[in-house]
Amino acid sequence: MNASRRSSLRLLSGLPALALFATPAGTAAAAETIGEQDVLIVVDMQNCFVPGGTLPVKEGDQIVPLINRIARRFQNVVITQDWHTPGHTSFASSHPGHKPFELIDVPYGKQVLWPDHCVQGTPDAALHHDLDIPHAQLIIRKGFHAQTDSYSAFVEADKKTYTGLGGYLKQRQIRRCFVCGLATDFCVAWTALDGRAAGFQVAVIEDACRAIDLNGSLAAAWDAMGRKGVRRVQSAALLG
Ligand code: VGL
Ligand code: ZN
What we know:
Elements: H1 3-13, E1 18-22, E2 28-32, E3 38-43, H2 64-71, E4 77-82, E5 103-106, E6 109-112, E7 138-142, H3 165-171, E8 176-182, H4 184-197, E9 201-210, H5 217-227, E10 231-233, H6 236-239
Parallel strand pairs: 3-4, 3-8, 4-7, 8-9, 9-10
Antiparallel strand pairs: 1-2, 5-6
Helix pairs in contact: 4-5
The structure holds pyrazine-2-carboxylic acid (VGL) and zinc ion (ZN).
Pyrazine-2-carboxylic acid (VGL) binds near residues 44, 49, 114 and 187.
């Protein structure tokens, strides 16, 4: 390697928040530098949300190996679990005369009715068998109040019952949240938006998510996230 190439490499390695790397195509791409003030939030990678589960998200299982790889870049990882009581208010079966995927009014606003899913302690609610993140530090469960749903890992659907995740991350000096998992347009998006509302910088890793996409919900979710300053990134920017 000649001297000028060596010195330009030295220059690049001195950049604090941005590194450059060569992609297979030979073009340079920006990469995220992950540090101790960053957390990866892995949302709802549970049996219920993959093919064969009670509320399957198309290709939900396909992102497991990618999430495992991304997680190795983070020293801080939080995993979430959707964790409903039997007969939970978000289940269509709890509302006679209604069917899954209908929208109804409940005391805290509109609620999409879902098939029974992620019931506490059932194999359906367990984390996907191939999820391999032994260094994850916290598993936060949500949606465990019988009368309130919680897509978000920060705040329940009533917008006033907190899960404690924001306080936990702040006490741990976390400033940036990277969010991946299931589903892009529900639990990932609501977690990302509430992360912003709690004062964190937030990025959603698009290709490490899969969506339900109910009546345009995916486009609406990206729109809402864009307006609130949630960054949309790809896993290549983290993996280099
Ligand atoms: C979810 C619908 C109902 C999700 C959870 O993880 O996105 N979606 N419960
Ligand atoms: Zn749920």
